Amino acid sequence: MDLGIAGKRALVTASSKGLGRGCAEALAEAGVELVLNARGAEALEATAQAIRDAHGVAVTAVAADIVTPEGRARVLEAAGQVDILVTNAGGPPPGPWSDWSREDFIAALDANMLTPVALMQAMLPGMMEAGWGRVVNITSQSVKAPIPVLGLSNSARAGLTGFVAGTARQVAPHGVTINNLLPGIHDTDRAAALDGGVVKSEGISVEEARARRAATIPARRYGTAEEFGRTCAFLCSLHAGFIVGQNVLLDGGAINATL
Prior knowledge:
alpha/beta, 7-stranded parallel sheet
């Protein structure tokens, strides 16, 4: 399917690997020029070059911490106005509710709520003026069903979801859509870290931890960054203009809910 977005320009944060890279790859495959961001310069430039070589699109790589005001300013200056914004950031660490301090919650909010909000505030006016734009926020399946050990993530991502719910309806008349993608377990570093926590706490092998988690998913496997990225690219396409303010689960059926 021709997504109709060749020649558009996209900013994808936390895109040197994992789900962010999957989104960047799929957008590049559709002919979109990219501005990629991550903290690690070496991995980021390797990803940027791989995408250039594979898809022949222009890729600008900006190594910076998008969560800090200084890093965000650098990324926004390099990006200029874009047509497509994909926000992504690593999730806060797991743990029991009794261990979290006020500072822990502020750090989670900064990374997983306030940074995406700031990026949207920077890009939405230009999109509205142009009469077209796409925003996709990568959040979590915990928005639909909270995960007990991920209370910091549950809280921050729920806040972002509330912001999007109201804002998406305000910008939609201008041809701009905002939607959220809610990943379940995908075969990324984040999944490896969560599985590593189970290995440590229960004294089992990595293989057993993965098998246990996969058994809880009706699809009986972890998702892939490639399939996640292509879903993101569709939400950014010309064909998705009537999808507004939605929370799209990609979890292999793990959340057992009718709605």
